[in-house]
Every structure is written in structure tokens, then in C-alpha cells.
Amino acid sequence: MMSLLLFIVGGVAGLFVFPAHIPFIENVPLFERPFRLGLDLQGGTHLVYQADITEIPAGDVEESMEGLRDVIERRVNVFGVAEPLIQVEQSGESQRLIVELAGIKDINEAIRLIGETPFLEFRTEREEPIDPEAESISADEFFVPTKLTGKFLERADVAFDSVSGQPHVTLRFNEEGAALFEEITEENIGRQVAIYLDGILVSAPVVQQKIAGGTAQITGNFTADEVRDMVRRLNSGALPVPITLISQQSVEASLGAESLVRNITAGIYGLIVVALFMIGWYRLPGLLAVLALLLYTVIVLTIFKLIPVTLTAAGVAGFILSIGIAVDANILIFERFKEEMARGRTIENALEEGFVRAWTSIRDSNVSSLITASILYWFGSSLIQGFALTLGIGILVSMFSAITITRTFLRAFSWNEGMMVRKLFGVK
């Protein structure tokens, strides 16, 4: 019964992974989710920016770079890139921003949008309707810009109300900004003053009174995470983190596609050879291990689609390597099984004892591999991280595959210990 359930799960996972080959489900929304392919597999643009952090205190560098990364990511999303890869990289004392736009061929437009300094501005309520002849079609329907922009904001911070404990945002302007803010709040008591970052509305609080002194609060029904996110975005619009493009590269898909084809071809040939070896050497257990291996493959690919994981050529290599690790676990189990059979145990008892004895070796070897993959992911660059991620996911699933799937299949055949069954298990 459990074996049948595993086959059903594997069948559904197979449909999810390869829907294009099944005509009646290929248009079902759930099955339309594609694999996320990296820059090297579908081509695109690779940009490297150098951030000028000379004016930023050492303790604020990390937050400023994360805020910058957040702003660039939102800009790229507006540009229409569904799966951008944007990350901060430290090279010695310098900070760099790596931007990979898979599928984007117009490199000049991408550079133009990304290279602009983050822009924070304050807007007041519009008093008259938009005049279509005097204003552009992109003009804000509800608010008009003021002179107060992010360059006058010294700092935004998270704070909590002393009575209610509700989180809110505090703003601190420089001297010139304080004067502008006081003037704006005085003229707009009882009305909204909107805060925009890169043309996107962040908040539109109502002014309760004239605010002097250069400090203000943004209150509302915010969660702590929402307030922290808002503070980071506000600071990213105010802090001077100019970036300079130091490297640009247009990546063609042909090179990555060729690597992908080679990797997949190597994986298929490797899988066939391993399957022949397992079946020839271990007979029925080998055949069941191959079936478990196929289930393992569709389960891992399903996880890659669901998370989703960006597949690069290195990531595909990590996945193929994890298949070999999954085979190793089965070999350890079968060798322990043969040793137990040599001691005169029944097939069923030998299988159970074989799994118990093999488990510690499987656990220790896989945990050490997981530690290695974690270190590679933590300290590696984007390609190395892709390799480490697919390898790590593959190792975790391989442990489930060896201990649960293979064991379930073997139990289904071990109850009848006739001569034929003993021969199929390789027992003389």
C-alpha cells in the first residue's frame, strides 16, 4: 500500500516536472510553472557596480548596502525582469553590487535604470485636478512634489510607542530639511503628506500639527517588520551611496545551453551505467533502488520548481553529483544486507538489520557533505552558491530516498521468502 502511494506521489511529481509531454495538463496553471534558469543558461546581462562608502560610518555600511540592493531590486522588477539576481559582494575594503538580469538584452536601458541614485521625495495633496494639456500622463493624480527630498533626510529609525508598544518610524532632517518640513506641515495641517521612494508610495500620513525641530514620526497599523522595511527603504533614499559601473557583460545563452546539454547528457549516460551496475550486481534490490532513484529525481526537480531554485550549469552539476550520493547510500545498505544474509538471517530480518547498520554511515557521510555544502553556500559567489544549494537539497532528499523509498519497496517483496524470491535478492 505504501509502495503504491509512493508511486502515485512520484507520478504527480513527474507531471509537475514535465507537463509539456502531457497534453491534457500542460495548460493547467499549477503545471505551467517553468524552471528558473540562470544567466548562463538563457543569456542576459551581468553588471558589476562599485559602491562609494567613504562617507558612510563603518557601522552603517551593511545596512546601506542592503538598502541599496533593495532599491535596485525594485527598479529591476519595474523594468520587467521576473527573476533578477542582485547581491552585495565585499572585495577587500570595497563593496560591490552584482546585478544579473537573465533574459535582458537591452543592456543600455538596464544600466540607465539601475545607475540612477535612489530618489526619496515628499509630496502634498493636489488641490486641483490634473490638467492633461499641462502635465504628463504619468503625473500623480493625488499628490504634487515639494522641494523636500531624500537629500535633506539625515536618518530614519525604528521606534516603539512607550504606552501601546506599537512600532513606528522616526525621521530626522538636517537644518535645511527641517525648515522645509516645518513649512510643509504648517501649510498642510489635517491633510496628507506622502512619502515616495523612486516614484513608489511608501506612506501618506496625515499632518496633525506644525512640526518644528526637524524630527517627525510616521505612525500607523504597521508590524515591526513593515516598519524596519520602511526605515531601510527611507535610509537607502537618503544615504549617499553612489555607485559606479565597473564591469558589464552581455552573456549569450548558446554557451550555457551547450554546457547544459553536456551536463544532462553526462547525467543520463551516468544514470544508465549506474542502473545497469545496480541491477546486474544486486538484482531485485538494485532494480528497486533504480526505481527509488527515479522517484528521487522527480522529487528533487519538483522542489527546484517550487522554491524555486535558479538553475545554472554549476547547479545542474551539483544535482547530478547528488544522484551519485543517493546511489552510495543504497550500496551501503545492500552490502550490510548481504553480510546479514551470510550470517543466516531471513531476508526480512537481514533487510531491517542492514538498514540499521548502514544508517550511521549514511548519516555521518551526508551530514559532513551538508556541512561542506553549507560552507560553500555561505562564503561562495553566485555560481558556487547555486552548486551548493542544489547539492544540499539533493543530499537531504537522498537520505529520505534511501531510508524510506528503497526500504518500502524492498519490504513489499521480502514477505515471501521462496526460492525465486531468494534468487531475485541475490541469495544462494
Topology readout:
Elements: H1 2-17, E1 36-37, H2 39-42, E2 44-51, H3 61-79, E3 85-91, E4 94-102, H4 107-115, E5 120-125, E6 143-149, E7 153-160, E8 167-173, H5 175-187, E9 193-197, E10 200-203, E11 215-218, H6 224-238, E12 243-251, H7 253-282, H8 284-306, E13 310-311, H9 313-342, H10 347-379, H11 382-414, H12 419-424
Parallel strand pairs: 1-13
Antiparallel strand pairs: 2-4, 2-12, 3-4, 5-6, 5-9, 7-8, 8-11, 9-10
Distinctive features:
428 residues, Multidrug efflux transporter AcrB transmembrane fold, Gyrase A, domain 2, 12 helices, 4-stranded antiparallel beta sheet, single chain, alpha+beta, 2 domains, 18% strand
Number of domains in the coordinates? Answer: 2
Strand content: 15-25%
Order of helices and strands: HEHEHEEHEEEEHEEEHEHHEHHHH
The strand count comes to 13
Largest sheet: 4 strands, antiparallel
Task: Please identify the structural class as seen in this structure.
Answer: alpha+beta
CATH homologous superfamily caption of the largest domain = Multidrug efflux transporter AcrB transmembrane domain
CATH class wording of the largest domain:
Mainly Alpha
Instruction: Report the end-to-end length measured between terminal Cα atoms.
Output: 29 Å
Q: Please state the average pLDDT score.
A: 79
Low-confidence segments: none
Distinct helical segment count: 12
Q: In order across it, which strands form the biggest sheet?
A: 3-4-2-12
The rough form would be described as elongated
Radius of gyration: 30 Å
Level of helix content? 40-55%
CATH topology of the largest domain: Multidrug efflux transporter AcrB transmembrane fold
Function: Part of the Sec protein translocase complex. Interacts with the SecYEG preprotein conducting channel. SecDF uses the proton motive force (PMF) to complete protein translocation after the ATP-dependent function of SecA.
Membrane topology: Multi-pass membrane protein
InterPro entries: SecD, SecD/SecF_arch_bac, SecD/SecF_CS, SecD_1st, SecD_SecF_C, SecD_SecF_C_bact, SecDF_P1_head
Protein name: Protein translocase subunit SecD
